[in-house]
Amino acid sequence: MTNDWQRRVDAVWDAAGGLGDDEVIRRIDALADERPDGDPLALFERAGARDSAGLEAEAERLYRRAIDAGLSGSERVQAQIQLASTVRNLGRPLESIALLVAIEPESGDLRDAVAAFRALALIDAGDARHAASVALAALAPHLARYRVSVAAYAEGLTASA
C-alpha cells in the first residue's frame, strides 16, 4: 500500500505547478485520509502541502506532529529541513539553525540542503560571514578546480571573525 500511496502522492507533487495551492492541499489531504490517524507520512505530506501554499503556521504544527509520531529515514530529514525553513520564515532564525545543526549528522545526501538552509537562517540571524562560510564549505567539494582554495577561504571566514 505504501508504494502505491507514495506514487500517488508524488503524482500530486509532480502536477502541483498546474493545480494551485488549494487543489494541492485538497488532493494531499484526500490521500492522507487513506492512512491511519496520526500516521507520520500523512502528517508530513499535509505539512508540505501547507508549507508550499505559504501556510507556515499550519505547516509547522504538522511537521512537528509528523516528527513526534516517529517519521523516520529520509522523510524525517526532509521534514526537519522543511520545518527549519518554515520557522525561519516565521521569524525564528536561531531556532531554524538549531534544528538544522541537530539533523546535520544524519542528513546523508541532503547535507548540502541542510547547509543551504542553515546559510539562509544565519543571514536572517545577522551572521553573513558565517552564512557565506557554510555555503562555500558546502560548495567546495563540487568544484572541479579551486576546491582546496575555496574550502580554505570558507574556513578563514569564520576563523577571522
TL;DR?
74% of the residues lie in helices and 0% in strands. It is built from 9 helices and no strands. The longest helix has 17 residues, at 73-89.
Keywords:
161 residues, mainly alpha
Number of domains: 2
Shape: elongated
Structural class: mainly alpha
Residue ranges: pLDDT <50 for 5 or more in a row? none
Average pLDDT number: 94
Structure description:
The structure is a single chain. This protein is mostly helical and 161 residues long. It folds into two domains: 1-71, Serine Threonine Protein Phosphatase 5, Tetratricopeptide repeat; 97-161. 74% of the residues lie in helices and 0% in strands. The chain is built from nine helices and no strands. It has helices at 2-15, 21-32, 40-52, 56-68, 73-89, 93-103, 111-124, 128-139, 147-159. Helix 3 runs antiparallel to helix 4 (56-68), helix 4 (56-68) packs antiparallel against helix 5 (73-89) and helix 5 runs antiparallel to helix 6 (93-103). It starts with a helix and ends with a helix. The mean pLDDT is 94.
Question: How would you summarize the topology of this molecule?
Answer:
Blueprint: H1 2-15, H2 21-32, H3 40-52, H4 56-68, H5 73-89, H6 93-103, H7 111-124, H8 128-139, H9 147-159
Helix pairs in contact: 1-2, 2-3, 3-4, 3-5, 4-5, 5-6, 5-7, 6-7, 7-8, 8-9
